[in-house]
Design a protein that fits this description.
The complex is a heterodimer of chains A (116) and B (115). The N and C termini of chain A lie far apart (37 Å). In chain A, the strands form two sheets. In chain A, strands 2, 4, 5, 6, 9, 10 and 11 form a seven-stranded mixed beta sheet that branches. Chain A has a four-stranded antiparallel beta sheet with strand order 1-3-8-7, with no helix packed on it. By secondary structure, chain A is mainly β. In chain B, the strands form two sheets. In chain B, strands 2, 4, 5, 9, 10 and 11 form a six-stranded mixed beta sheet that branches. In chain B, β6 and β7 form a beta hairpin. The chains are: A mainly beta (116), B mainly beta (115). Chains A and B meet through β5, β9 and β10 of A and β4, β5 and β10 of B.
């Protein structure tokens, strides 16, 4: 149980285009989902916290108009990178808190974004 | 986000040996301390986690030691195997209140277990 999937696993796009990444909790309802970015050989940096049915909360320095997050249901959150540029190339990982009141987070397999 | 300091940055251990990774935190509001294992190109996987009300937790070959007064916690991997070679991250989060459940990660430790 407690499986989180991401789609796509890998995407290559041209500079200026938008890319949507989906994060799904497959066998549980996630009240909260988190989006992280990880550059090569670095740690995970929290980008935003997403609660179902409400606006995402972004960390300092993360542009909310560039990284659009939608959490329309208890099993799906999406991250859209708008007008992507080469510096947005990174590994994007989502996680889901699997039970209200639980600390445990389960992570997706990540999405490798490469912007040419 | 409050910082979580992790050391060493890299670690080489012989097969069968004990791998020890240390973390220290500053925020006394943290009350959940998980360790994650990450292989290249994959998402992190939860290994083991501890709360401040216990000083040690063991699951198989993995043990967390927790020192609340020193604000430090460590991961011990007993009988290390080549398959344990991965990057390990410690993390911490507060319980309820502002920033609740948001994980702050250490910088990671790349473990290599040599035969």
């Amino acid at each position: 149980g407690a499986v989180v999937s991401q789609h796509p696993s890998r995407v290559i796009c041209k500079s200026g285009t938008s890319v949507k990444i989906e994060c799904r909790s497959l066998d549980f309802q996630a009240t909260t989902m988190f989006w992280y970015r990880q550059f090569p050989k670095q740690s995970l940096m929290l980008m935003a916290t997403s609660n179902e049915g409400s606006k995402a909360t972004y960390e300092q320095g993360v542009e909310k108009d560039k990284f659009l997050i939608n959490h329309a249901s208890l099993t799906l959150s999406t991250l859209t990178v708008t007008s992507a540029h080469p510096e947005d190339s990174s590994f994007y990982i989502c996680s889901a808190r699997w039970l209200a009141g639980s600390d445990e987070q389960f992570f997706g397999p990540g999405t490798r974004l490469t912007v040419l | 986000q409050q910082q979580v300091k992790q050391s060493p940055q890299s670690l080489i251990v012989q097969k069968g040996g004990i791998s020890i990774i240390n973390c220290a935190y500053e925020n006394t509001a943290f009350d959940y301390f998980p360790w994650y294992q990450q292989f290249p190109g994959k998402g992190p996987a939860l290994l083991i986690a501890i709360r401040p009300d216990v000083s040690e937790k063991k699951e198989g070959r993995f043990t967390i030691s927790f020192n609340k007064s020193a604000k430090q916690f460590s991961l011990h991997i007993m009988d290390s195997q080549p398959g344990d070679s991965a990057t390990y991250f410690c993390a911490a989060s507060p319980g309820s209140g502002a920033g609740s459940y948001q994980l702050t990660f250490g910088k990671g430790t790349k473990l290599s277990v040599i035969p």
